[in-house]
Design brief:
Strands 11-6-1-2-3-19 form a 6-stranded mixed sheet, with helices on both faces. A 5-stranded mixed sheet has the order 14-13-12-17-18, with helices on both faces. Strands 7-10-8-9 form a 4-stranded antiparallel sheet. The protein has 15 helices and 19 strands. It is α/β, with parallel strands linked by helices and 461 residues long.
């Protein structure tokens, strides 16, 4: 199996090219590895360790993985902590969020035996917006061969969209390149042509929301390698290349939001965020059963169901009271009557969002539900009723190690962040390679000019 097949499709090429174009310094400076006898920690090559930080409304999760000598990804640590500082995917309390991140990091470091220095961080929230755009440039150079610089220029042309001052671009994701009317090209470098076009998917977010995530991570003592849209990250861990090719819809049911990403012909085509999630279901249970929120969450996880069964009418659930009031017994069917309307609302809004896009008729693989909400009993069957299409649960795959801990839909984003990072590194057009190419071209041009001058001099002589 190739690296590309193993870790997923090509990452955000435009972000990589932009980074090189602006000659940014690496976010993570190489550090000397401390001696084992002093720290007692395992020692790995720095560039073989990857960490993903999933900052959610209900939980903060940190996952550490290593790529071994056989190019296999192995999870070596999973850390989790309750999240108290977010609402609908947006930071509302910096101090509490920093504390939650710190607790999760300490837990994962203890398990993995390595220190977390830098992380790929997920971003979500109902402030996320996306648009599709197109850029066109003339191919530079006398030989009309497309080079990295042409990709950079067409990127700038494609991302030249009008944005409010309070929004910033998070991703510019390539969908396809077109060279002289020849489309469906994924990597045009080396092609010959006169006209280069790029169709891209641009994801934007609120400047303040992104800045607050950066502040929280940095105050927790970590460096941000990249900020990654959470449904994009999840797609790396739960979707296959064949699904993305024939068309698939990914619905990530998180605690504060429900994230949607549509794929077709191997590329992301549409993204959206719905400001409802598992936290709303928990609130409904707390109000309907008159029980504290923490008890409502436990009841949801243990007994939650979206489709009623005959035996649920006789199965009784003990519900703790509020403020020292006595517990009560309610039939499980009553709990289902509370949960189902909210899940129907969320999935119906997701369906409406899908039909707002231009790709509702191109999702031949159906839908994949992931995230904590996808673990509710009966939600797959309910999803098939609402979408009238095949629906399955998305479980992270493509890794070894602590599969039992990390192989749950609640870790789809965390695993996906790591796989995104690996693909970003593998497909990076390094400055060194580009500079070498420019140096070679400069030397050749210099030699040609010297040759021309020598020819003119000898002719006159």
């Amino acid at each position: 199996m190739s690296k590309r097949a193993y870790f997923g499709d090509t990452p955000d090429l435009f972000t990589v090219l932009e980074r090189n174009n602006h000659k940014r310094k690496p976010l993570v400076e190489p550090k000397p590895v401390p001696a084992p006898e002093k720290t007692g920690r395992k020692q790995y090559a720095v560039n073989r360790i990857y960490s993903g930080l999933d900052i959610g409304t209900n939980k903060i999760a940190v996952i550490i993985a290593e790529v071994d000598e056989h190019e296999m990804l192995n999870v070596i640590g999973v850390g989790m902590a309750p999240s108290d500082g977010l609402r609908r995917g947006v930071v509302v309390n910096l101090e509490k969020t920093v504390q939650s991140i710190t607790r999760a990091v300490k837990e994962v470091e203890l398990m993995a035996g390595v220190e977390v220095d830098s992380v790929y961080v997920g971003i979500a929230g109902d402030h996320i917006r996306s648009i599709n755009s197109r850029g066109v440039v003339a191919v530079s150079g006398p030989d009309h061969e497309i080079k990295a610089d042409d990709i950079r220029r067409v990127t700038e042309a494609a991302k030249a969209v009008s944005l409010p001052i309070d929004r910033e671009i998070i991703h510019v994701i390539p969908q396809e390149y077109i060279v002289d009317d020849q489309g469906s090209i994924k990597t045009p470098i080396g092609f010959s042509g006169v006209r280069l076009e790029a169709e891209v998917h641009i994801v934007t977010g609120a400047v303040t929301s992104a800045q607050n995530i950066y502040r929280c991570v940095q105050r927790a003592g970590l460096k941000v390698k990249n900020l990654v849209l959470e449904p994009l990250a999840s797609s790396y861990s739960v979707l296959g290349d064949d699904e993305k090719e024939i068309g698939v819809g990914l619905i990530d049911l998180g605690g504060g939001t429900t994230d949607i990403a549509l794929f077709y012909e191997g590329s992301i085509r549409h993204t959206a965020v719905i400001g409802l999630g598992g936290r709303n279901v928990t609130n409904d249970i707390a109000q309907g059963l008159r029980t504290p929120l923490d008890q409502a969450e436990k009841i949801k996880l243990k007994y939650g169901c979206t489709l009623g069964r005959r035996e649920d009418q006789t199965e009784m659930i003990e519900v703790p009271g509020v403020g020292g009031r006595p517990s009560s017994l309610v039939p499980k069917s009553f709990l289902t009557e509370i949960i189902r309307p909210r899940i129907e609302e969320i999935l119906t809004l997701a369906k409406r969002e899908v039909y707002r896009s231009d790709y509702a008729d191109f999702l031949s693989a159906g839908f994949v539900l992931t995230g904590g909400g996808s673990m509710l009993e009966g939600i797959i069957e309910l999803g098939e009723q609402i979408f009238d299409m095949p629906v399955k649960m998305g479980v992270p795959h493509g890794f070894g190690g602590l599969v039992g801990l990390a192989g749950s839909p609640i870790h789809a984003t965390g695993i996906g962040l790591i796989q995104y990072g690996i693909n970003e590194k593998e497909n990076d057009f390094s400055e060194e390679e580009t500079d070498e190419a420019h140096m070679f071209d400069s030397i050749m041009n210099w030699m040609k000019s010297i040759g021309t001058k020598f020819y003119s001099w000898s002719k006159n002589f």
